[in-house]
């Protein structure tokens, strides 16, 4: 579970990227975090993962405070950033072993998990190659595999479907569903509103650092007394902001 209470972040002391944000992302559901460019999505995710500190407010992950109990909080989640261009000089297998070392995954268990993940993402034949030789989609897949190798309770995914081929995209969505159905948490941002409408149990729409709506898609339709798509409601909701 992820909880944000009164979280605020400003840049240059004037521009509020995130403004008094309150959010609950419970266990057992896929939670979509939606918003136009510059709305505060990535800033929020970077605060949740401890990459940047909020100016005010509190963030907890499974009850662990990211500011005061940082290591324990970070053990709770796996994070896929919005850019997969990391650790380019390592071979795929070296990167996965490196991630397993960080999270102290036992040797036999890591071997099984790497094999399973490589099979699901069609990466078995590429693990001996350097990441810089990978296509964008392959880099995205190896990053996803790296954060899943320690089987984290909470998945935090920033635009995870970008660059994935249809089969890999389907596989990841399938795995997200499995993870949530097992009583764990999936928190992800996406620009692909059709995917969010079909995949998410609940969504939050953020714009200019404030939550405009949080709930299920049917609740959103009921709120706006409309049977339009998520895309139509999203555009309507954000156009005047």
Description:
GO terms for molecular function: ATP binding; ATP hydrolysis activity. Pfam families: ABC_tran (PF00005). It comes from Brevibacillus centrosporus. This is ABC-2 type transport system ATP-binding protein. The structure is a single chain. The chain has about 240 residues and is of the alpha/beta class. It is about 40% helix and about 25% strand. It has nine helices and ten strands. It has helices spanning about 40-50, 70-75, 90-100, 105-120, 135-150, 165-180, 195-200, 215-225, 230-240, and strands at about 1-10, 15-25, 30-35, 55-60, 65, 75-80, 155-160, 185-190, 200-205, 210-215. The strands form two sheets. The protein has a six-stranded mixed β-sheet with strand order 6-7-8-3-9-10, sandwiched between helices. The longest helix has 16 residues, at about 165-180. The radius of gyration is 18 Å and the shape is globular. It starts with a strand and ends with a helix. The mean pLDDT is about 90.
Distance between the termini: 29 Å
Relative strand content: 25-35%
Question: What structural class do helix, strand and pairing data support?
Answer: alpha/beta
Q: Which sequence of strands runs across the widest sheet?
A: 6-7-8-3-9-10
Helix content: 25-40%
Query: What is the N-to-C succession of helices and strands?
Result: EEEHEEHEHHHEHEHEEHH
How is the quaternary structure best described?
Answer: single chain
Keywords: ATP-binding, Nucleotide-binding, Transport
Protein name: ABC-2 type transport system ATP-binding protein
GO molecular function: ATP binding; ATP hydrolysis activity
Pfam family, one: ABC_tran
